[in-house]
Design a protein that fits this description.
Number of strands of chain A: 11
Largest interface: A-B, 24 and 25 residues
Helix content of chain B: under 10%
Largest sheet of chain B: 6 strands, mixed
Structural class of chain B: mainly beta
Distance between the termini of chain B: 41 Å
Strand content of chain B: over 45%
Structural class of chain A: mainly beta
Oligomer: heterodimer
Distance between the termini of chain A: 36 Å
Number of strands of chain B: 12
Shape of chain B: globular
Order of helices and strands of chain A: EEEEEEEEEEE
Strand content of chain A: over 45%
Chain lengths: 113, 112
């Protein structure tokens, strides 16, 4: 079955530690996205990539980093510079840009204490 | 800049009642329009999409939405709500060469 996987489902870290969230897709999509969702709020775009080895900052990129070395993979690193990292993180992919529907993974809930 | 509004933060309906969730957008051209549903702690699932053509589009789970250009709206409807429809619903607008803009979401509660 084609789809997007995110791992782990729940992640706990101590403050000051970097943490990497995994996102893999087997839909052969060119574009991939990372969103952050806080309780009662909508989705905010962190980073996106429309092609391998290229990515752009979204609306809230500070304190985050990404890489896109393979078409299938788009890992997100939450660095210690991110002031409020506790949130629900969603990865998505689409054929290209906003003219195509995005498909979402199940999400990773990150808790930093 | 594109923007999407969902005027209702929270809606409560009785099971079996009809449902309409509102979505308005601000956009210069004909946008690509989407509705997604999210159950608690889960990812988003696409309910339906509008690209062009017939302004009434059918989606999964018995949902439909109507694009009204004159009102810049894309409201989601369902004739009879089931308890399993309780979730968060997001409207999104896309454009060629641009990223999605998501609305803030509407939380739906269903009374037995």
């Amino acid at each position: 079955d084609g789809g997007i996987t995110q791992s782990p489902k729940y992640l706990f870290r101590k403050e000051g530690q970097n943490v990497t969230l995994s996102c893999e897709q087997n839909l052969n999509h060119d574009a991939m996205y990372w969103y952050r969702q806080d309780p009662g709020q909508g989705l905010r775009l962190i980073y996106y990539s429309q092609i391998v080895n290229d990515f752009q900052k979204g609306d809230i990129a500070e304190g985050y980093s990404v890489s896109r070395e393979k078409k299938e993979s788009f890992p997100l690193t939450v660095t210690s510079a991110q002031k409020n990292p506790t949130a629900f993180y969603l990865c998505a992919s689409s054929r290209q840009d906003g003219s195509y529907e995005q498909y979402f993974g199940p999400g990773t809930r990150l808790t930093v204490t | 800049a594109q923007s999407v509004t969902q005027p209702d933060i929270h809606i409560t309906v009785s099971e079996g009642a009809s449902l309409e969730l509102r979505c308005n957008y601000s956009y210069g051209a004909t946008p690509y329009l989407f509705w997604y549903v999210q159950s608690p702690g889960q990812g988003l699932q696409l309910l339906l999409k509008y690209f062009s053509g017939d302004t009434l589009v059918q989606g999964i789970k018995g949902f439909e939405a109507e694009f009204k250009r004159s009102q810049s709206s894309f409201n989601l409807r369902k004739p009879s709500v089931h308890w399993s429809d309780a979730a968060e619903y997001f409207c999104a607008v896309g454009e060629y060469g641009q990223n999605f803009v998501f609305g803030p979401g509407t939380r739906l509660s269903v009374l037995p």
